[in-house]
From TrEMBL:
Record-linked Pfam families: PDDEXK_1, UvrD_C
Name of protein: Uncharacterized protein
Coiled coil: none
GO molecular function list: 3'-5' DNA helicase activity; ATP binding; DNA binding; exonuclease activity
Domain PD-(D/E)XK endonuclease-like: 314-534
InterPro entries referenced in this protein's UniProt entry, alphabetically: DNA_helicase_UvrD-like_C, DNA_helicase_UvrD/REP, P-loop_NTPase, PDDEXK-like_dom_sf, PDDEXK_AddAB-type, Restrct_endonuc-II-like
Domain UvrD-like helicase C-terminal positions: 79-197
Superkingdom per UniProt: Bacteria
Signal peptide feature range: none
GO biological process entries: recombinational repair
Keyword Nucleus: no
Alphabetically ordered keywords of this record: ATP-binding, DNA damage, DNA repair, DNA-binding, Exonuclease, Helicase, Hydrolase, Nuclease, Nucleotide-binding
Gene Ontology CC terms: cytosol; exodeoxyribonuclease V complex
Source organism per UniProt: Haliea salexigens
Amino acid sequence: YDTAALYALRQDEHLWAAACAELAALRQQWFGQGFMKMALGLYQRHLQPLPARHERMLTNSLHLLELLQAASQHHRQPEALLHWFATARLEADGSTGTEIQQLRLESDGKLIRLVTLHGAKGLEYPVVFLPFVSYGRDEGRQRPGIVRYHQRDDFSARHALEPTEQELAYYREEQAAEDIRLLYVGATRGVRRVYLMAAAFTSLRTSPLARCLSAVSWEALQNQVEDMAAAGDCTSLLLDAPGSAPAVAATAAPAAALTPARFTGRIERDWWLSSFSALTRNVRHGGLSTPDRDGAPAPLADPSAPAAGELRFALRRGAEAGNLLHDVLEHLDFQHPDFEQALDQAERRYPNLLLGQSDWRAALTQWMTQQLAAPLPSGARLADLAHHNTLREVEFYFPMQGSDDPDALGRILTRHRKGSEAPLPAPVRLKGMMHGYIDLVYAWENRYYVVDYKSTFLGYRLGDYGAAALAADVQQNVYDLQYLLYTLALHRYLRTRLPDYDPAQHLGGVHYLYLRGLHPQGDTGVYHRAVDLEALAALDAFFQARETSA
């Protein structure tokens, strides 16, 4: 897609829906039939190489697809394969690439190749052009601060900082010898003909060609070449080219006096970006909001803590621990977890968090394995969820056209709590966009669930993460408003994507997984709430009050 096509796509609802449906079908084909089948179909439908470069573009594209297909055997998830491809591109080096990464056509032999003198060593070409053999080094302008040369008695390599005149002379002598060696390499690559192209550069005297012919000026070099041509050793061709193009005087028309246009529009200053954090902490986002994570600062050491214990309880509290666990779960394939790769990334991103934890890799692997095996209220476990039935770190926006009543949102939450007061700080009229990130959305038995991960520390025993403790923590931190917002975002999304969508049938509810208490044996660490259809409808109407009242 070019810019115009993308713009047209965004303006046409039917085209946009068709593009989304095609991407979803391609994703399913990838998981069902493999990367290559999906990629070839995509290529045939959309890639249109330029006619003049069709052969090369077609060959390059198919070669890249073959490399990706081979890599997909080890990186089965799209995100992992994309990460591999991005890394391979960054690490690609034409001078050191493996043979499998290089592909040449029979028609490549007809092309003009630009090759460095170093790269041409050992190769042969029918015709060779050497355009810069009369361009030398500028020895007068800048004196090098460090030089490398060889002693003349034992030929040992030396480095000199702030070199003396003698050391500088050795260094320049070796540079000149290297330049002449490279000239020899280039001049002996041609099978039928070699063109040595010379010009009157200011640095001609130090060029490898002038040194070989002992020419100290452009005239002396010309005389040498003419003598060689007369002897039949070479052919001389002299072209007179102007040193520079004649200067063209630019005459600009006098500029007319400019006056700025006056802005007569109206700027909506009450339109803003909101989020769960903004609603509960009374802040506004100047730009994009960030994922709502467990943001409490790390507390001081707890003197009542056991001297040693499971990592789930020993891991330092605070936002950094929450970020680590979120990151691992976001990128992990639940059915086929690659803990080695996940822990390598964790160690790179959070090196200080795991200091002092003995054998933390084994401990974290054990803990994460237990999290994946813990039963969920839907009847599934995380370990049962295929990657294509999950969405990770789901970003959403939806418009806020809220009621003029600043307390309406608090009343919706109070009714959801069955009468328990739910005051919100400094309530305001909501207008703009609601923005957020859902940690996980998964599909199971034709129902869709919202999942949020919590690294909150509630105690040193699994029993401290029972249903009553979790319910109290949810209300204390107003997480029930958070999951209502997340459910509304999923509800609005499914309403536009599923035929015959029915929230009572398709919405399975929310799970708040308190990771420190999550365990395969028992029902701790899971806070579940079925969908409150009345609260969902009220919240939906609240955020589009202007539309519903029209």
